[in-house]
Amino acid sequence: MAHSQQEMAPHPLLATAYPTPLVARLAIAFAVLVIKWDMNRRTRGQLARLDAHLLRDIGLERHTARAEAARPFWR
After folding, report:
1. Apex 9 CA angle, 5 and 12, nearest 5
2. Which domain holds residue 73?
3. Per-residue DSSP letter, 2
């Protein structure tokens, strides 16, 4: 049974007929990088504030947690 082109065409909002422009890809990559850096900064700050018993719960020594918390946000 043959289908017409009308029946097989994807929904116009779902069609990806055009590739994403380079500027848009770069902007998205930059936004993802900034979000990752912010997450690193926040989670390392939270790690630095954990009590000794909480560090034991997650299996970290105090010196290991301090070393991780001291790392720059971009690493």
Report:
1. 140
2. 33-75
3. -
Tokens linked to 67: 């070393």
The reported pLDDT for the residue numbered 37 is 97
Q: How confident is the model at residue 19 (pLDDT cuts 50, 70, 90)?
A: confident
- At residue 20's C-alpha, the angle toward residues 15 and 22, to 5°, is 170
Residues 6+ apart with CB under 8 A from 68: 44, 47
66: left (phi over 0), alpha (psi -120 to 50) or beta: alpha
Q: Give domain status of residue 68, yes or no.
A: yes
- How many separate domains does the chain show? 1
Mean per-residue pLDDT, 41-51: 96
**How large a percentage of the chain has pLDDT more than 70?**
77
